[in-house]
Amino acid sequence: MTAVSITAADLIATLRSMEDARQRTNLLRFFKTGPGEYGEGDRFIGLKVPQVRLVVKEARLQVSLEEIGILLQSEWHEARLCGFLLLVEEMKAALPRSRNAPTKAVAETGKPEAVVRAERREEIARFYLRHTRRANNWDLVDMSCPKILGPWLLYPLPDGTLPDRSLLDRLAKSDCLWEQRIAIVTCWSLIREGQTDDALRLSTALLGHPHDLIHKAVGWMLREVGKRHPLLLEQYLDAHVHEMHRTTLRYAIEKMPEPERQHWLRR
Length: 267
What we know:
Layout: H1 8-16, H2 21-30, H3 49-59, H4 65-72, H5 77-94, H6 103-109, H7 113-130, H8 138-142, H9 145-154, H10 166-172, H11 177-185, H12 187-192, H13 197-206, H14 212-228, H15 230-240, H16 246-252, H17 258-266
Helix pairs in contact: 1-4, 3-5, 4-5, 5-7, 5-9, 10-11, 11-13, 11-14, 13-14, 14-15, 14-16
């Protein structure tokens, strides 16, 4: 499905050619890379996300998973971002009725296109799951998992069954902050399809989490539930508001009318 011609070394060289020392200083501070902070030790070239996206646009569907894996192992934050965004493009191309039909793969295997696409989605998702710990900051998580794991969970596997969503529960129980955030943020794609059970279940499992990045992510997903199902969010808050960190609550009620916000803040 992928016409391979671009290497990780090519892409890193392109990214480094745009190096910006002033922007690098800003990013080091913004992504909390100091001693004891969640991004401690991360290294930045100094690029904004749109710059990385331009590189990805030129290279999409031309980089093998092996080369993407090299990007994900890079010391450079922007190289890892590039790798995850390339993986997002691969998943998009493997979705049903994608414009990038895998005609060559279908011809070579003799399998129905739906099966070829399902096998490719499975390959991409499993590859991502082997590299989750390389999504080691909140931006890498948020720009990858809803568009990689999310679609994978929504579509059938090659055997026609749906992926087992208990995977999300296992990630939520991980000892890795980033895998825990992946678990809850992946639910964004499911919520958009009207499927809220996973988000509510994982929110409850993570309500007692000590880290601010999980407080924010849980509140964000609850807010997304509330956008589509206001009554469901109200019912959830009624049951759990006293267990919530204040940050989670503020994120969850952010889009409510002010009188409703004040009601929940006073609870």
